[in-house]
Amino acid sequence: MGGYLIYFLIIMIVPIWAQFKVKNTYNKYAKVATAEGMPGAEVARRILDANGLYNVQVKETPGVLSDHYNPMTKTVNLSSENFHQPSVAGAAVAAHEVGHAIQDQQGYAALRFRHALVPVANISSNVAWIFIIIGLISSAMSNMLLIGIILMAAGVLFQVVTLPVEFNASSRAMDQMVSLGLIDNREERDARKVLNAAAMTYVAAAAVAVLELLRLILIFVNRDE
Question: In the record, which residues are listed under signal peptide (predicted)?
Fold first, then answer.
């Protein structure tokens, strides 16, 4: 019983800690202006143009930390604060999203694989727990639990594949900002802190998903023994 309590505390606390870390780091460096004084929108545009991505638009999107790259519309969407404010955090986030645009342009394999998994992951995440709950309630319906585990595995695979995509986008972001002179040496260190904190949310989500999948697999295996 104690082991289960510790397990559930871990899977609850780790994501909360990761979210706290990224918000705290972002809020800190959102108040630190870059020496170049360029808002996120201009940082994104500079990097896009330097890589020949003139067809990719930079747009403002509502929300906080709602920044994302849309491969369907070929748009880098930046939250209002990052779009307008010349901060280290804004520059880092904008460059990161452009990193995804560069991945898309170059046909980065992990990104293409993640895109292919999207419809499967969306469906599996919505229905997996229906089968899992039925399978857990009734020991006579182990096959339902197995189906749920298989569906859940598709969602876990999506989260695991997301890790190299996000880390690679951050690496590209740092390379671009430094090579184009968009940040100085001090800002490079601070921008990396923002990107590393953001990456931890993906690591935490993937770790929790893998642990939960393994727990369910052990339940299924032990039930059939």
Answer: none
d(CA 75, CA 72) in angstroms, rounded, equals 8
Helix and strand totals (H; E) in the chain? 7, 3
What whole-number distance in Å separates Cα of residue 158 and Cα of residue 31? 34
Contact in structure between 61 and 39 (CB atoms under 8 Å): no
Cβ atoms of 178 and 188 within 8 Å: the answer is yes
Using left for φ > 0, alpha for ψ between -120 and 50, and beta otherwise, residue 108 falls in: beta
Provide the CA 208 distance to its chain's centre, in angstroms: 14
Q: Which of 42, 81, 97, 166 is catalytic?
A: 97
Instruction: Give the separation between CA 162 and CA 156, rounded to whole angstroms.
Output: 10
What are 145-165's pLDDT values in tens digits? 999 999 999 999 999 999 999
Q: Is 66 helix (H, G, I), strand (E, B) or coil?
A: coil
What per-residue confidence (pLDDT) applies to 92?
Answer: 97
Give every CB contact of residue 210 below 8 A, 6+ residues apart in sequence. 156, 160
| Residues 101, 120: Cα–Cα separation, whole Å | 23
Contact 41, 78 (CB under 8 A): yes
Q: How far is CA 224 from the centre of its chain?
A: 36
Q: Mean pLDDT over residues 38-50, rounded?
A: 97
33: which DSSP letter?
B
- The reply to whether 166 belongs to the active site is no
> Which token pair is 117?
């998994």
Which of 65, 57, 107 lies closest to 197 in space, CA to CA? 65
